[in-house]
Backbone:
């Protein structure tokens, strides 16, 4: 088995969705697995070969499914295990791998584990959670949702003690280092791998591996938990992966990946994402180049997951106050567009004011970065958002399939969430059916670009360097792998730029533009190219 098979995730396209809002098959207003199965052909046609599913277990839905009551069941609204298995069989038939959200940091407060734990200090589940007899001094420090969340400790009148919760008060944290909880975690992992899953998106990794005795503003991590999980998963399925959600600084990356790649297989690159949005907002790519360099070192058996938008806010917490204000001014100037004192709660198309050239720049960039691209459902057709919905629900509205009632998501009068339909983002235009019949649509452009990304494996498997174009507006990445050479260039300036550059062996090379099929020859050992405002070039060096 060569490296391309062993590390399949390095040349994959991951499509992320929530079953609840993707496609309703029985017209009860809620998406389900039968509906998802009926749309596998669409996902396949995009070129995606992996799907990341948001939580689909039973939940009171206080946090859109991330407050789970039972890790071994399926939310009845979404279907049965037979429906789930039919979906898995359909994905396997199309060679699409499936990852699921693994939410192990906390449970729902309505979980039987917590309900049993709170009733008696002698309950076997009491030590599955973190308690304090006295009100902790740091009860309001380190909140994940500042401005909405009041504390990280709450008093439980039944237990007579305070319980710890990094997230909302209805999501008590599990004592994840407790040996019994570790055993249960392994049991959950095995249960779903036995159902055919190909891996997990591990939720809230830094909080999951906190050491209970150091909780608060400053806390230590138990990185062996990640090593042990990877080792255990390998024993179940050598090809299965862990994609971690860890918004950490570059000097911490090696702790999560492991010195030799013994940690998690993949991690979302939040650091690059924040500087990427700064570049889109200002036209200045200098800090993005620096962020890429700072996160360049990744073990050979690991990979970054790059993304534009996900199911949460655009987190800008790693930017300076000055730089964050610039991004706010461009993409979230109104207070209702901002969230948690650090982010923006909008989809990509509204943020970029539906500017097609800038949207293409952003997605070409995502596909051309050294990483595995993660695409958010609906962004491929330029869906809008609904700022009337609370917090992050603004970007979690139903997928839009057709210009029919409720965008073809459901025939029920009232879907689980409102359909986005406005003068700027009309359902009549922003849906799959209409865009599939238009070769110039955002959807068809995305399909062509994803196909191009799949045909350039040097991005996933090769080495890369930044080519100096003597402009802070230009990001140029040069990839080499085996005998393949690729130069991907992006212009963040709204105005055209003239660039002149040399590549190793320039005089013997010519460049083939993989988007336009134009050939570019060197002049006096250098190449000279004009690149449009918000333009991009994918150039094969031959």
Residues:
């Amino acid at each position: 088995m060569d490296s391309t098979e062993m590390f399949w995730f390095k040349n994959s396209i991951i499509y992320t969705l929530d079953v609840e809002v993707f496609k309703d098959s029985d017209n009860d207003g809620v998406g389900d697995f039968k509906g998802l199965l009926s749309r596998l052909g669409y996902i396949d046609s995009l070129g995606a070969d992996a799907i990341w599913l948001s939580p689909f277990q039973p939940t009171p839905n206080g946090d859109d499914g991330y407050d789970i009551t039972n890790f071994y069941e399926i939310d009845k609204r979404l279907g049965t295990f037979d429906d789930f298995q039919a979906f898995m069989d359909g994905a396997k038939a199309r060679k699409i791998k499936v990852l699921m959200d693994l939410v192990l940091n906390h449970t729902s407060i309505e979980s039987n584990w917590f309900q049993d734990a709170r009733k008696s200090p002698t309950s076997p589940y009491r030590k599955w959670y973190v308690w304090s007899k006295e009100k902790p001094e740091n009860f309001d420090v380190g909140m994940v949702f500042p401005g909405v969340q009041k504390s990280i400790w709450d008093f439980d009148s039944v237990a007579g003690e305070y319980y710890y919760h990094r997230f909302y008060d209805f999501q008590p944290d599990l004592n994840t280092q407790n040996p019994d909880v570790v055993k249960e975690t392994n049991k959950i992992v095995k249960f779903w791998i036995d159902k055919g899953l190909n891996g997990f998106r591990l939720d809230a990794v830094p909080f999951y591996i906190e050491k209970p005795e150091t909780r608060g503003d400053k806390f230590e991590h138990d990185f062996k938990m990640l090593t042990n999980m990877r080792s255990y998963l390998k024993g179940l399925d050598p090809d299965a992966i862990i994609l971690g959600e860890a918004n950490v600084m570059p000097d911490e990356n090696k702790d999560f990946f492991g010195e030799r790649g013994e940690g998690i297989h993949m991690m979302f690159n939040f650091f690059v994402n924040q500087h990427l949005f700064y570049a889109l907002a200002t036209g200045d790519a200098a800090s993005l180049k620096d962020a890429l360099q700072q996160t360049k070192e990744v073990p050979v058996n690991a990979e970054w997951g790059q993304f534009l938008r996900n199911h949460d806010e655009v987190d800008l917490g790693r930017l300076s106050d000055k730089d964050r204000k610039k991004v706010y001014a461009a993409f979230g100037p109104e207070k209702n567009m901002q969230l948690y004192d650090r982010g923006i709660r909008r989809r990509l198309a509204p943020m970029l004011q539906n500017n097609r050239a800038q949207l293409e720049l952003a997605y070409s960039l995502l596909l051309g970065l050294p990483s595995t691209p993660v695409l958010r459902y609906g962004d491929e057709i330029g869906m809008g958002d609904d700022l009337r919905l609370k917090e992050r629900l603004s970007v979690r509205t139903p997928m839009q399939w057709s210009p029919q009632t409720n965008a073809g998501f459901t025939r029920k009068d009232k879907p689980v969430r409102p359909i986005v339909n406005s003068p700027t983002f009309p359902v009549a235009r922003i849906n799959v059916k209409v865009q599939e019949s238009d070769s110039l649509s955002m959807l068809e452009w995305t399909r062509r670009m994803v196909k191009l990304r799949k045909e350039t494996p040097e991005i996933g498997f090769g080495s890369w360097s930044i080519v100096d174009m003597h402009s802070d507006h230009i990001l140029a990445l040069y990839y080499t792998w085996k005998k393949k050479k690729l130069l991907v260039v992006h212009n963040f300036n709204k105005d055209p730029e003239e660039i002149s550059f040399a590549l190793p062996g320039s005089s013997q090379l010519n460049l083939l533009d993989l988007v336009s099929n134009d050939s570019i020859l060197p002049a006096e050992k250098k190449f000279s190219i004009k690149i449009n405002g918000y333009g991009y070039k994918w150039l094969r060096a031959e």
